[in-house]
Design a protein that fits this description.
Layout (H helix, E strand, L loop, with lengths): L11 E6 L2 H9 L8 E3 L10 E2 L1 H4 L9 H7 L4 E3 L3 H16 L5 E5 L2 E5 L10 H16 L3 E6 L2 H8 L7 E3 L5 H5 L12 H9 L5 H5 L3 H8 L1 H10 L15 E13 L4 H16 L4 E11 L4 E6 L8 H12 L9 E13 L1 H11 L3
Parallel strand pairs: 2-4, 7-8
Antiparallel strand pairs: 1-6, 1-7, 2-3, 5-6, 9-12, 10-11, 10-12
Helix pairs in contact: 4-5, 10-11, 12-13
Length: 363
């Protein structure tokens, strides 16, 4: 059965910088080159922002506690993050991409999708564009990037990880089914350890195994995510590259110097609500949903959310809703928390929110 790739196929590149923050540090400080570098503030509550490939050999990974990284790699050099320099390098890289296409969708400072179906640089193929971008990044920033070229975003993201670091992998439409069939299901974005365990309990270890299940069966077991799994197993992803995506969420969070009980979190929640509110004002849009995030001392993450009838209209209103969400956390009384976050999501244009309010207003 031939791969079900949408026709006509797009030409998508996923560019992913190699150990970006750590690589910037090694570039700017020659004494760090070839050494295991961990970008993180030191301290009991700190987490790893990035790790060089030398540090990754010891099992150090982003988002792990810095203390654990230090245990895994005692010789690691810890460097505090400098986001001003990382953002400057990211802007350089973005300009290089924009020389080839206006359809650049940033995912973060260090990765982006590009639609080069009609590249404005005039190069003959998507592969040539990817090679040119990687070469210019190396020449102008002294950093390396890996890239994946494929018919859609899902496949391009998998491909960019295939020959890391400093690699290029091209996946053509006719190769999709053969490429996907033996892959572990854990390589599908969104399939974490929990979902992987559920699939393995059904005897599904590879994408080929997943492809054997019907759409109806996957939807019955996993709802809307089952439909996404059905598409991904066949290499289907019709999402366009969206260069100017509006803000979808804004949040602020804080990790405490020591674990706190739930009833001691109010000052932090109010402070974070104010910070999140100020950030949301810069978007020019209106958020409908309030989110409270908590992380326990055992690193269990809890989230509570509420979409009120009327969007919060001040930092105080946001804090009030976040505190109400705190009251809905039903954990044992002795539970301690290491982190709290307050977020806003479900952003809409002001006129859209106003029209909805008019629609439901009383005559």
């Amino acid at each position: 059965m031939p791969p079900e790739v949408p026709q006509p196929s797009r030409k998508i590149i996923h560019v992913d910088m190699d150990a970006f923050y750590a690589s910037v540090e090694q570039r700017d400080d020659p004494s760090l080159r070839g050494r295991p570098v961990v970008v993180a503030w030191r301290g009991a509550r700190s987490v790893v922002c990035a790790a060089s490939y030398e540090a990754r050999k010891y099992g150090v990974r982003s988002a792990m506690p810095a203390l654990r990284a230090e245990r895994l790699c005692p010789d690691a050099v810890f460097v505090p993050p400098d986001f001003i320099r990382y953002k400057a390098a990211s802007r350089q890289i973005r300009e290089i991409m924009l020389a080839h296409t206006d359809l650049v969708e940033p995912l973060s400072l260090d990765e982006a999708y590009l639609d080069v179906t009609e590249a404005k640089s005039g190069l003959p193929s998507a592969t040539a564009v990817a090679e040119a971008i990687r070469a210019r990044i190396r020449e102008e920033t002294a950093l390396t990037a890996s890239a994946g070229v494929a018919p859609n975003k899902f496949l391009a993201k998998i491909a960019s990880d295939w020959n890391k670091p400093d690699g290029l992998f091209v996946l053509r439409p006719r190769q999709v089914e053969t490429f996907l069939t033996p892959l572990p299901v854990g390589r599908i974005p969104g399939v974490g350890k929990v979902m992987q365990g559920k699939l393995e309990a059904l005897g599904i270890a590879t994408v080929g195994d997943l492809r054997a299940l019907s759409l109806e069966e996957l939807q019955r077991r996993f709802g809307s995510f089952g439909a996404a799994l059905h598409r991904r197993a066949r290499g289907i992803d019709e999402r366009p590259v969206e260069p100017d995506q509006p803000v979808q969420s804004v949040s602020s969070e804080d990790t405490f110097a020591e674990d706190l009980p739930l009833d001691a979190l109010e000052p932090a929640i109010r402070q974070l609500a104010d910070k999140t509110w100020q950030a949301s004002r810069k978007t020019g849009r209106v958020a409908r949903t309030v989110v409270l995030k908590l992380k326990t001392a055992q690193f269990r993450i809890l989230t509570r959310s509420l979409t009120p009838d009327a969007p919060p209209d001040s930092a105080q209103a946001l804090a009030t809703i976040a505190l109400a969400l705190r009251a809905k956390v039903a954990m044992p009384a002795g539970t301690r928390y290491r982190l709290v976050g307050v977020g806003l999501s479900g952003f809409r244009e002001p006129e859209e929110v106003a029209s909805q309010a008019d629609l439901f207003a009383a005559d």
